[in-house]
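sry for the spam today, last one i promise. struct tokens for design, 221 residues
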């Protein structure tokens, strides 16, 4: 068998030029423009982002989560508080997220600290989830823990279904809810020809992410 050599995979990047004068003052306003562009371009799940956290026993760990909201205060996502990433965030709130929009040769990198959303915010989002996903949250109480087999998973879901049968509104599990990634650094990356990419980084110099002062630097590719 002749293995595929990743070094042979090369794609030319012909992205739209970025200029300092065309950037928004606030990074989340710029993020809104790019996220809208990614959505309108027809990308599959443009809200999928790679979230990296710090774990005491395993260094840095990354996984894909779904962005479920954003504003000038930060980016919101939801998970089981007792999951591996939930435990890591409770122990060390530092985190970084990457939204890789390969088809349009763009990516956004956000670094900062994470805080839990209020119970009211988590309840409000949970009510918007399909019922099957609400049941799934109850069925996966011990997310990230070892399970015997698929049959055990299916039985757990069936038990949760029976528990909430006939209940019109499934409540949010107490161990499940949202987080907000409060950015202190945001980088916008646009692929360009000959690997001479455009990169602009916003750095929070003072104040809070929502209304503080941000510095914008152009970075070498």
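last one done:
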């Amino acid at each position: 068998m002749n293995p595929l050599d990743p070094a042979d995979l090369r794609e030319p990047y012909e992205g739209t030029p970025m200029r300092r004068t065309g950037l928004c003052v606030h990074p989340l306003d710029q993020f809104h423009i790019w996220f809208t562009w990614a959505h309108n371009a027809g990308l599959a799940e443009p809200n999928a982002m790679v979230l990296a956290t710090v774990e005491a026993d395993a260094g840095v760990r990354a996984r894909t989560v779904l962005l479920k909201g954003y504003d000038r205060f930060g980016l919101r996502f939801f998970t089981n508080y007792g999951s591996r990433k939930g435990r890591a965030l409770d122990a060390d709130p530092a985190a970084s997220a990457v939204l890789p929009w390969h088809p349009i040769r763009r990516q956004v990198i956000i670094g900062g600290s994470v805080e839990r959303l209020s119970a009211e915010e988590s309840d409000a989002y949970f009510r918007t989830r399909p019922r099957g996903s609400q049941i799934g949250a109850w069925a996966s109480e011990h997310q990230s823990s070892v399970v015997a087999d698929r049959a055990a998973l299916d039985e757990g879901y069936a038990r949760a279904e029976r528990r909430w049968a006939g209940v019109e509104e499934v409540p949010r599990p107490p161990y499940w809810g949202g987080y907000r990634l409060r950015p202190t650094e945001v980088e916008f990356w646009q692929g360009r020809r000959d690997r001479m990419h455009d990169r602009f980084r916003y750095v929070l110099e003072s104040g809070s992410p929502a209304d503080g002062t941000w510095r914008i630097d152009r970075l070498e590719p």
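The two ends are 36 Å apart (CA to CA). ok im logging off now
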